[in-house]
Structure prediction request, 440 residues.
Amino acid sequence: MADRIGIGILGFGTVGQAVARILLEDAAAMEARTGLRLELRHVVARDLTKPREVTLPDDVLSADPARMFSDCETQIVVELIGGVDRAKELIRAALQAGKDVVTANKALLATAPREIFSAARTAGRCIAFEASVAGCIPIIESVRRGLVANRIDAVHGILNGTCNYILTRMLDDGISYAEVLADAQRLGYAEADPTLDVDGTDSAHKLAILASIAVRQSCELDRVQVEGITNIELNDLAEGRDLGYVCKLLASARRHDDGLELTVAPTFVPREHPLAAVSGPFNAISVYGSAAGHAFFYGRGAGGMPTASAVISDIVDTAIGNARRTFEQLVALPDQTPSAKYRTTGESIARHYLRIGLLDRPGGIGRIAAALGAEGISIATITQHEPPRDSATHVVPVIVTTHPVKRIAIDRAVAAMTTIKGVVGRPVCIPVFTGETDAK
Ligand SMILES: NC(=O)c1ccc[n+]([C@@H]2O[C@H](COP(=O)([O-])OP(=O)(O)OC[C@H]3O[C@@H](n4cnc5c(N)ncnc54)[C@H](OP(=O)(O)O)[C@@H]3O)[C@@H](O)[C@H]2O)c1
Prediction:
């Protein structure tokens, strides 16, 4: 006789409906695979009149979470409402009611990790959160358990499918950021308000969670240096391609002798690295471990069903007691690990690409070269293009690539360039990915 596990879902949107669909439609297959009878007992939403794609059995849908919390036959509560404050309140209430919790809420886990995890410990329950990073890719489980033999030296991820879709389409179709974004919103790859995706915040949330697990230290969200993709132009992507690179919004955690470095930034990835081949809305993560070397993970990072795949794996893990053991024994959660020691900002060394808008007048290139030279930056290549035929401004893009140099020197040179006569706007700077060579 299969063990019966009662499940309640908070939130009946994209992911909540997909989880409900699998629980209802694949119940027999899930039972055959796991030996568990996963019974969906409660679903909570705000608007009970809204049309939904999944039909629930009578009496399952309500607007009242208390019904779920007081039901002693519901053992696992799945939080899929998103946001921070209300989700935190509901998770606390579920834990206090003796439920284990599964969540996909990266914003909450990244902004209040100690609070959430210590609430679970105090209540003697556990929280599983595989779906909070990289959708269907089992990356939390892999770094925590599968790669437990390793000191993880670096993690580099394409963790936001919206940004990857935008960067891929810009280059493939030769269209601007604004055009692709509008199209992505129409096709449902981007939210109506895409700010948290395109400004890098969503990737930073996921990186803070993943890095905390990977390096077994507490990685604070405000220590992630974040830059989004809003300043990237089609020109930059095309120049990068000519230089042998593909531009990706890369979320990186790197361990150095002098501390940890956490960054989210548009980065030129050499074409031969597997991350460069990740296109469209897909996610991928390169993990560099002391024993394993390079391990690469790839899959759908968002969407109802891919995310539900990770949620269901957490439900099963929780039901069979694995999640509890992991939570208690593989002690690497932010409420119990020391805060990471961070490398000083600007110390990272990489080759850099710069695009400088320059008025087409004598002496401009010389002044740019002098600004770079003043910071000890060695130029690898420099190219000045013809101004576009229809340009009334006579602003020409000057493309510079540098030899490896500290980021702080680049930032100082960029600041100096903004004051140079003839330089228009702020130069765009994209570091070149150096992979495991800079992951000590
Ligand atoms: N969508 C993805 O691809 C994806 C991928 C990875 C992780 N996630 C995470 O998964 C979570 C859910 O995302 P989603 O895309 O499924 O969101 P969504 O489509 O906006 O659905 C949210 C659901 O929560 C309900 N809700 C919101 N506030 C509520 C409240 N105060 N009380 C009760 N119900 C409330 C909404 O009810 P109504 O429908 O009645 O308004 C809706 O059903 C988020 O944390 C998100 O970051 C999503």
